[in-house]
Amino acid sequence: MNSTIICIVCPVSCPVDVEWTREGGVSGIKNHLCRLALDYVESELFDPRRLLTTSMPVDGGDWPLVSVKTDPPIPKHMMLEAMDEIIGKRVKAPIKVGDVLMKDLLSTGSNVIATRNVKIA
User: Fold this and answer.
1) Which of 77, 83, 78 is nearest to 112 (CA)?
2) Cα–Cα distance between 91 and 77 in angstroms, integer?
3) Which of 2, 41, 50, 60 is the 20 to 30 Å CA partner of 90?
4) pTM of the predicted protein model
5) What is the pLDDT of residue 23?
6) Smallest Cα–Cα separation from 31: which of 18, 50, 47?
7) How far apart are CA 68 and CA 98, in angstroms?
8) How far, in Å, CA of 76 to CA of 71, rounded?
9) What are the start-end ranges of the E strands in the chain?
10) Which pLDDT tens digits describe the chain residue by residue (121 residues)?
């Protein structure tokens, strides 16, 4: 099979032509400018992952919400299920950037971490 995937590893954004099989193998790539494209293309074809960003309500904080993200990215097909898991959860101030607010989200090995500081009100 043949596909063209825009590689987003670096700012160049190469349109990489890929030859691959459904069994999970890349037989060749063309039009890439760096060696990072192969890993990105394989991941995007066979195990696409995305960083989930959202917010969570904060009790007792100087901000009503704290922005959060998954770290590392989670499988793309689990994004909606992950949001369902996060919705309704509340956290307490104080919160610092990098604090783990939920561990091992949906057994993915990914934590939900704070991306903003929230002080006690």
Assistant:
1) 83
2) 26
3) 50
4) 0.82
5) 77
6) 18
7) 9
8) 14
9) 2-6, 15-21, 25-30, 49-50, 53-59, 65-71, 74-75, 91-92, 100-102, 111-114
10) 888 999 999 999 999 999 988 777 888 889 899 888 988 998 998 899 999 999 999 999 999 999 999 999 999 999 999 999 999 899 999 999 999 999 999 999 999 999 999 999 9
- The token pair at 120 is 């006690």
- Supply 85's token pair: 């898991």
User: At residue 68, what is the residue type?
Assistant: V
Correct CATH for 53-114 of 3.10.530.10, 3.40.630.30, 3.30.300.30, 3.30.450.20: 3.10.530.10
